[in-house]
Structures are given as structure tokens and as C-alpha cells.
Write a structure and sequence with these properties.
CATH class: Mainly Beta
CATH topology: Methylamine Dehydrogenase, Chain H
Keywords: Signal
Organism: Streptomyces rutgersensis
Protein name: Lipoprotein
Radius of gyration: 22 Å
Distance between the termini: 15 Å
CATH architecture: 7 Propeller
Amino acid sequence: MARRTARAGMLTVLALALTGCGADTTGGQDDARTGRPGVPEGAPVALRLDHVGDQDGELTDLAALGPDDLWAAGHDRKNGGSTGRYLLRDTGDGWRRLPLPDALADIPYPPRLDAAGPDALWATGTTTEQGGPPVIAQWRDGRWSTVTPPPEGDLLDLVAFGPDDVTLLQNPHPPDRDDGAGNIVSDTRTQVAHWDGARWTTTLLPFTAAALDGTSGDDLWAVGHRSEGPGIGGDGQEMNQTAAHHYDGTRWTAVDTPLRRFPDPVPPEAGAALDTVVAVAPDEVHAFGRHSFNHGEVEEEPDDEHLRLRWDGKRWRDLPEAEGACGTRTPLLVDGDTGTLYENLWYQAADGRCHKLDRPRLPTGGEVRENARQGLGVAEAAVVPGTDRIVVVGHLAVMQGGNPFSRPVALHATR
């Protein structure tokens, strides 16, 4: 099953990576079907345009409920500002624009969308530009309803396995706590809140988490970092180490991850953290992050370390550093047993071969000049259940003198 990659900060306007329109390939042999080097049989080759908006803006999120029930969220732009938030829906006869549900009508940014079953959608927004408590509307049985507000806290991530089995990852409010000795200290821990269809239940995790994913409501992972315990301070001078927490249906437990340390002399303010987790199976979970430091304070600096960890059902281990374009990128989605789609639309098939998907261009003429450069910004990708299609949403930016503009787009690739 394809899983949406857990990512923090989804309720802010997404920073969409602007990519070129070329179709680079790496390695492999010609495939009889595609004629493209490095493209294995069964892997997607190119993206095709399904929808182009008629005014400046972008699509920011996507949820695929079924073959004929796709949803996207987006907003218009004018003079660099967001002027209108809306939904798009495709029920099999093309994308149609819809207003936001009443509960989300006044949110400053487009909502986050999450499929919660074949006929259920969660749309989550915040009431202020600085984040704040989430406001949730649920589409179920053909109508919108408002979900009981969750506990106070900024939303970091969300995973849904059904309309009555949804878990949020949050920065709790207030951010400070009493340490038991009368001292007020900053609380860097993170909380999870679970919705069972009737009420919310909250748990405070031991450390700071940034991303959430799982294979079921009884098999969840939250990853991030910790600033106390083994590998912190001392001769290593590391300020943070990676952290992982697992939920087994009964309780959350901290699980050891490999320690990081730069070679001597350790650079200033060094630390490691995880920011992405992808759960494929109970014994196949991948986490991604970075081991870095405060650059610019010493003459000889080591290279930052891209972290790639794998849970094999017993322990977290470092994955060997992969070569090629797929080696250091963060995944957008795991495409079942077929492969993995990474940032900038690099696709790694199950046999390890990595290639870049072709992407379309807006035709020249009218607003688009002959010498214009075009780039595709990808916000979200999803596998359409029960089909061989991957859907992608984002924007196409047209960069040209005097009249640059951007159009919201929805695209698909066929495996």
C-alpha cells in the first residue's frame, strides 16, 4: 500500500522545490517498452497534465480516496499574496473547483487533506498565520461535518486509517512546564492525540518528534531528536541525537537509534535529527534526516551527513549511503512493491534503478513566450487506490521577463 510521506509543517504554505523540465536518467539498460535507459518495466515514465488552473496560484495538497474520488487543495495568488483558498475534486469526469467547508472558510492557508478511508476525507487548517490549534472538517457520507477540536497544540503531522482512527502529532500548548522543583522550563517534547470517533486521547512523548507514520492504528512511529541521554555533550559535543518512538496499540515507547558523532575536532553546535518516516510494513520502516552543525564558524568543515535509517522489526540500523540522484533525496511516497518516488520526481524501482520522470510544459503562445523557462513545483503525490496511476499536484512556474506567472496543476503518471 502506498503511504503518504509524513512531513512537518504541512499547514504553512509549502515550499515547493522548483525543478527543471529535463528528463535525466542514470544507469540501467534500455527497456523494450519505453526505449528509455534506466526505466524498468512497470515503472512510471512521464507525467501528463490533467488540470491547469486559469489564474495564478498553486495546489498544495492531495488525497486519493478511490479511483473516482480525488481531492486537492489550493489557493490563488495576486501581487505575491494568497487571495483565495479552495478545493478541487475529480469524480471521474475532470477536476472541478469547490469552496471550502464552512468550518474552514476563514483559514489563512489551504487545508491539509488526508484520506481516512474510501469515502472519508479529513481537511485540517489553522485559524492564524502563525499556526495554532487545528480546525478539522470531515467529509463522510456525502457531506461535511466538523470534528471535535483536538487538544491545544500546533499540528505537525497526521496519519489516518479510518474515520474513527486518526492520530495527530502536535507541539503542545503551553510550551513550558514545571520541572517538579518549582522551576519553569521549556518543554521540547511532543504530544500525540488519537481520535476514536468520539473523543481525543493525548500522550506526551519522551522527546521531540517531527514526523509520524505507521501501518495501522496499532503500529505507529514518530521520529525526531532528543537533547539528553547517550551521545549528548561530553567529548562528543553533540547537542542532539536522533530519536524514534513506537506505538504498539497500548503505549508509546522510545526506541534506540544509532548514535552520531563528527570526527575530531567536532564542529560547533553539532546535532542529528530525523524529519521523515515512511512505514511500509511492521518490519520495514525507513527514516530520513540530517547530521549537521552551525556552518561558518571554523575554517575546515566536515560535510553534512544525510541520515537514512531502516527498522527491520528488531532494531534501527544505518542504511549504506546510496549512490545516484535517489541516494540523498527524501521520498514523496512509497509506490507499493513497485518502487519509491523521491523529491524532484526521481523514481527508484524495486530493482534499485533510478530515473527521472519526464514532466510536461505549457504550450508556447499567448501568455507563454518562446524563450520562457518553465519549472514544476511538486507539493504532494499519491497512488490512486485500485489503479496503476500516480497523481501529483503543485504548480508550473513560467519564468520570463516582464510577465512571470504560475499556474496550479494536477498531473498523473501511469505505471
